[in-house]
Amino acid sequence: MAPILSYCTNVHPAEGLGELLALVEGPLARVRSAWRGDAPMGAGLWLTAATARVLAQDPAACDRLRAALEAAGLFAFSVNAFPAGSFHAPRVKEAVYRPTWAEPERLRYTLDAATALARLLPPGAEGSLSTVPVGYSGFGMGEDALEAAAANRRRAAEELERLSVESGRSLRLGLEPEPLAVLETVAEAVRFLRDRVYRGLGRGEAVARARVGLCVDACHLACVFEDLEAALARAAAAGVPVVKGQLSSALELPRPAENPAGCARLRAFAEPRYLHQCCALVGDPPRRIAANDLDDLFAGEALHPAFETAARVRSHVHVPLCWEGDDSLRPTRGERDAELLARATPHLEVETYTWGVLPSTVRSASGGRLEEAIVAELRWAEERLRRVGRAPG
């Protein structure tokens, strides 16, 4: 099956239905035309909790959105149901993980988004949703919260199965590991699903495995020093499906103690909206250490002493795939990322939601304007897929 390649619309501040319709008719349509010409393009929609609720409760609203997509040469295939709202507020940071999967509001939001996606999908199509990796480590989620989160995931699997049967569209949910979240790595997410979500369900285990799996973001794995190929192999060996793959790149600072120019450039990415977790490997044998944000990596202008012996520091800053960097500060993207993810899942998204807060030097080197940068990233990913015979459909 040819992969579907698109980009995630969380890069746009479109939170209500009216803004979403304007996005479809404007930027999304222009990106499709510039990249695909007259050919259709998948739309990786970000739906807030409020918009998902409107679409779930009002079939006419879904009809309006589906008609707008069709008129623009677009089709729905995936929904980002991670940020519940206010993703472009002045300060987001840890709030992006609220509500957690231990809270009923997260389940309700997810099922609203799934109901909307089922109505937007073409007949017989498969739809994917991505979601929070339980919550954030700083929230202090204990055993009771983890069990509540697992129970809500099991409920989600049951409801996704029901929606899939009733609608004739197959729906799958992928939890997305992220640095310093409750689930940071694919390995941790696989254990959580295997031991807490799938286990003990009897006949229901097959349903849970079919409906709930992983969303694998290449930026996130790079940040925590988890090899993408090995992680995907681990998930496959455990029978955990990869629902969606996100093509993205983090920042890598080599030789931080000897690289003042790179440190200065990395500090320029610190900003008040998004969380930019930082990780490094230190010691022998290597162990991973982390800072909650870029401001914690530096004490004023000096590097935090814990990171001085690291060979490299990686930061959760999504930078455009086509940005090259240099020897002092570089992207983590891998030349085989697109190929590896396309082998695991047919649903692929470019996700550089940070565009609005990136330094102007990075934006100007990546196309200058948002739509041009998105098209450049899509072409970068498409070229690598074509090289291995997996041109997007």
List the helices and strands and how they pair.
Layout: E1 4-7, H1 17-36, E2 41-46, H2 49-57, H3 59-71, E3 74-80, H4 104-120, E4 126-131, H5 143-167, E5 170-175, H6 186-198, H7 204-211, E6 212-217, H8 218-223, H9 228-237, E7 242-247, E8 249-254, H10 260-267, E9 278-282, E10 287-291, H11 294-297, E11 298-299, E12 302-303, E13 312-319, E14 330-331, H12 337-344, E15 347-350, H13 360-365, H14 370-387
Arithmetic mean pLDDT: 96
Total strands:
15
Indicate the low-confidence ranges by residue numbers. Answer: none
> Which CATH top level class fits?
Alpha Beta
Apparent shape: globular
Class computed from helices, strands and strand pairing:
alpha/beta
Order of the strands making up the biggest sheet: 1-15-7-6-5-4-3-2
Beta-strand content bin: 15-25%
- Element order, helices and strands? EHEHHEHEHEHHEHHEEHEEHEEEEHEHH
What Rg do the Cα atoms give?
20 Å
CATH fold title = TIM Barrel
Helix content: 40-55%
Distance between the termini: 8 Å
Report the CATH architecture. Alpha-Beta Barrel
Could you describe the largest sheet, including whether it forms a barrel?
Answer: 8 strands, parallel
The number of helices is 14
| CATH 4th-level superfamily | Divalent-metal-dependent TIM barrel enzymes
Domain tally: 1
In short:
This protein is α/β, with parallel strands linked by helices.
